[in-house]
Amino acid sequence: MNRDKGMRKDFFFDPSNSPVVDKVGVEERVSRFQKRSIKKESKLQGLKMILNMIDLTTLEGKDTEGKVKQMCFKAKHLHDSYPGLPTVAAVCVYPSMVKTAKLAVRGSGVKVASVSTAFPSGQAPLEVKLTDTKFAVESGADEIDMVISRGRFLKGDYNFVYDEIAAIKNACGKARLKVILETGELVTLDDVRKASDIAIHAGADFIKTSTGKISPAATLQVTYTMLEAIRDYYDETGIMIGMKPAGGISNSKLALHNLVMVKEVLGSMWLSNEWFRFGASSLANDVLMQILKTETGIYQSGDYFSID
Predict the structure, then answer these.
(1) Low-confidence residues of the chain: pLDDT under 70
(2) What is the model's pLDDT at position 10?
(3) Looking at the domain assignment, is residue 6 inside a domain?
(4) I want to staple 90 with a disulfide (CB 3.0 to 4.6 A). Which of 18, 111, 225, 250 is the partner?
(5) Mind telling me the catalytic residues?
(6) Is residue 9 part of a domain?
(7) pTM for this prediction
(8) How many domains in the chain?
């Protein structure tokens, strides 16, 4: 079941009701996921699935239209000499580059995501964040990746964080909203769980670990904690929420561990780019190399793959 656009929970949500996380238990579960063996056929299927779940991203102050166009070309043409590969799920850019990206991926099925809300710090008044979001949506963004106000969250001002997310969700219109928790600044798994619950109840379509600017980012322990929040919400409401680990996932092995975890915690329904994404541009080339190695038995040099 999908969330109605702009819908908010019709009952009072109390963040103090978020469960305490068993850190030792989480680490034990994650350790098991990392020990699973994957057969060759399943591995190849998983690698292609990962490609189709990637949000190729460029979020630098030096971004130019040319750089964005090059990234969009790669999004559509991951490796033309190897037929049958999927495209990535989306490209993610700053609001000022949305129009350029939208034109560059036109007709490909690749979505355009835009960060907003004074990314990556989130240190701006709500009016500025709303303007930022509306500009991106009006420019053609299919998805919005917002950052929460971590300072207000860490002060315990949970109602502020909730209301801000709800306001941004309303400004998104038809665009899907990914809420970035910046888990490296939240530090504890208890706070990761609480922030996940707040974001979900306030209207997030996806919850996302990180901006990619702070370390640690998408650890398996953090992702597992967020997946449990999604599972509990689904069990309660029947509404599916997406998940996006971002930052630090640069190799196929770690990405496959994430897929195993998603399947076991949430189920096969989440194994599509409609509900699960990777925010990791450098991951694409490693996955391509692993696919060709699995198919041919030979590694290709990284020189055969475009950097952007």
Answers:
(1) 1-12, 297-308
(2) 39
(3) no
(4) 111
(5) 145, 208, 244
(6) no
(7) 0.92
(8) 1
